[in-house]
What does this fold into?
Amino acid sequence: MTKQATPPPTPDKGAPTAPPPPPAWRHYLLLIAFLIFILLYFVLPTTSRSSVSLNYTQFLQDVSAHKVKTVTITTSGAASGTLKTGSAYTTAIPPQASYPLLNELQADGVEITASTTGTSFGADVLTWVILLAPFLILGYLWWRLSKGARGQMQGVLGVGRSKAKVFDEERPKTTFADVAGYEGAKVEIREVVDFLRRPERYARAGAMAPRGVIMIGPPGTGKTLLARAVAGEADVPFFSVTGSSFVEMFVGVGAARVRDLFSEARKRAPAIIFVDEVDAIGQRRGGSAVVSNDEREQTLNQLLAEMDGFDPATGIVVLAATNRPEVLDPALLRPGRFDRQVTIPLPTLSERRAIVEVHCRGKRLDPSVDLDVVARGTPGFSGADLANLANEAAIIAVRAEREVISAADFAEARDRIILGRREGSNVLLPEEKHAVAVHEAGHALVAVYSDHADPVAKVTILPAGQALGVTEQLPLVERHLYGEDYLHDALTIRLGGRAGELVVLGQGSSGAANDLANATDLAIKMVREFGLSAALGPVGYPSGGSVFLGGGGSAYSSRPFAEQTQAAVDDEVSRLLREAERRAVELLTEHRDVLDRLVEVLLASETVDGSQVYALAGRAVPERGEGMTVAPDRATSTALPPVPA
It folds into this structure.
């Protein structure tokens, strides 16, 4: 019968913990203080504390009076000794008086001692310490550099140590229940966590754990929030680090930090490593700007080797997030490193409703607040935008000395986010106000009389931000494809404000500058990218740019074609814009009476609801079809949602 080993007793959680040991530097300070005391004690002569300094005349007088008992004379002329009274003295003897003085001292019976000039033991020790101090300091630094100071430092003064935060026992409180929507993304990420928690379940089916999961999507869609939920749900250690923390001014530091990060994760395996903004170290290699010893390239090479190299990391899953997938190196995205790519898009209508509900927890809402209406009025908003919307509505309520948030607060917060703060001091001149009313009325009526346009939601001539007036449109359906008829109507509506000025005022103004720029950009995309020009035919010349962060500037920024093709593009763009303007002028001329009435209503009330515009035009308000959702496009100051390239 074998005796089982008794497990060590577990410490009582309620018992007070022992105080931590004092840091080592305190002992070093005490040792240094003791050495300084010893050196000062030996350097200072002990006789100097009770000796009397005599000049040469006083010394001769004491010799003549037979008061001197002993004298010690050095080769440098310094003399010291004791008097017959027992007190010590010091003096200086000039070289010229050496022989006569010695005869006199000998005649008076003074005990004479001769000594050579030298330093004390303490002074010698201090001299050697001063000479050896630089070498001792260099040796100490070399010892810390080579040994790592017992794990407290790595590399040059610790710069090679990973800066990752470890969540082991004290985990974030965020869970998957706090992440509204994105059920498909949560399922894929939850499988990774479940694989680390119960690997035997997948081993029976022969399944292997994915090495990595990368989340891509626009900013503010909740990629980091999903990672925090993983940290809160997982029962394994969670390492959180940003991509920029690997990059330093010293070449090789980033690679050292990657090695240290995976080394710590292997010690705690199974574990999860989350790298936020991985594009900071995972950018595509090659090109004229990259050299062989580039810091980013070495860091990326080390990351590739750690994820799936000759000695791959086992029991470690890497989560990453980025909104720039187009700049990542293909070797980083291949299967075996990041086996899964999870796209986190902008939320749909139902997801926006759930996200707003999450961010309204703990807030007192008025019964008039309909979160479905709030979600429908925020197409194109990300999760961060919706969180900001709920917070801005609460701030507006507090500004009005209220604790309950009303529907008007959400509407004002939405306008504040889209348009900017309304300037009460930005008062327009009467003729400017009339011109803005004509401009916005032209946008609104062209949208009302266009069969394929999105419905008008609101028209206002109140200045906000950089916009003097706004015509807002909200789509009824979630569009994934934009037909040619929709795009032509969009061009016409963009030029509706300028057309209204031409019809009523007889001339254009600078207020249409933004509309013209947006219309030109859309026309260029129709010709160059969408193949909607009969002159050029089915060809596409994309302008490039980031997938989720917008394009790289104007559509004219890149020209992968000949000059003749550019001339043809210019002709087609000009033709599309002229046709759109002609159509808008014809529509407003045909309905000039409705245009004048809408201008009068805008001048009187400054803000008109979309239903009033349709009532003035004698047309029914479009209604949302069954099962349809709002398209994720934000209304802009040009009265139209942006058309994606």
